[in-house]
Amino acid sequence: MSFVRYLGCGTGRLGCSLVERGHPVTGVGPAAAMLTVAKAKPHGEHVEWVESSAQTYKSQQRFDLIVMTGHAFQILLTDADALAVLGTMRAHLKQGGRVAFETRNPRVDWASEWAARPHRMLPGGQVVETLKITGGVGEFISFQTFYRFPHETLTTSSKLRFPSRERLEALIRLIVHDIFGDWDASPFVSAHAREIIVVAELA
Questions:
Q1: Residue 183 and residue 26: Cα distance in Å, rounded?
Q2: 121-125 average pLDDT score
Q3: CATH superfamily to which 4-106+163-201 belongs
């Protein structure tokens, strides 16, 4: 049994799955509405849900595993925010524990790939999702997502950061245990890997 903290927990899918497997879980997220959805999911009542940003979360508890998934690390657009989150991870990790998070490999031409993506019908068949690239400079890609309902269209604007492996390792200040290139645990090869999946531990 491992004590797990899940940063950027969203609607709680992973946290509830880990609880179902017998692990005590703390899910941390900044959006109250998403936490409400998470609490209502099967096994959600057994998760400790905390409304907080990953940058400012504080607890006396120490964890065996701290995870940040769903490419949430990429919304940290400045070194200051990334360092604050990594500092939170270090401060709450047990000796011998592990941190795990992922980011997309910047060697992939994500802007072109996303721009060529066709319209997507979301589950339920009532909402069509489309994406428009609005900018790309250095490590950053900006885009708008359009959700077309039968009687209205909602638009969101987003910006993501795509740090290189070298930049990540400079920021982490932990011992990097593994870096994988995809979810099959294949090794990271920058020329063709789609992901940079980092597993690290305290120095």
A1: 23
A2: 72
A3: Vaccinia Virus protein VP39 (3.40.50.150)
